[in-house]
Specification:
With about 90 residues, this protein is mostly helical. It contains four helices and no strands. The chain has helices at about 15-25, 30-45, 50-70, 75-94. The chain is extended and about 45 Å long.
């Protein structure tokens, strides 16, 4: 198991509110997990090679083209479905 350290952060109230909303909605199990994931995503960005970046650029371009063509989904419905899928997997894992 990785070693952990306690870190005291002073953040704007709006960010803390949004962070807690994400935890309450089930996106993260805790505030610590949310901050950890955000920091990991920030640092992982530097580790992408050019091929991976090109794949991401292509996926973004495809998404923009779909949106421009009207091929879109309601975000709330998509997030609801994803949360249900994640929760069902967590239940199966025990």
């Amino acid at each position: 198991m990785d070693t952990t350290e306690r870190l005291l952060l002073d953040l704007p109230a709006e960010l803390v509110t949004r962070l807690r909303e994400q935890v309450a909605s089930g996106d993260f199990r805790s505030e610590s997990e949310a901050v950890e994931m955000i920091l990991k995503s920030y640092y992982v960005e530097d580790d992408l090679d050019e091929g991976e970046l090109e794949e991401i650029r292509a996926a973004v371009a495809e998404g923009i083209a779909d949106a421009d063509a009207g091929r879109v989904f309601d975000a709330d419905e998509v997030f609801k479905e994803l949360h249900e899928r994640i929760k069902s997997r967590e239940v199966r894992r025990g």
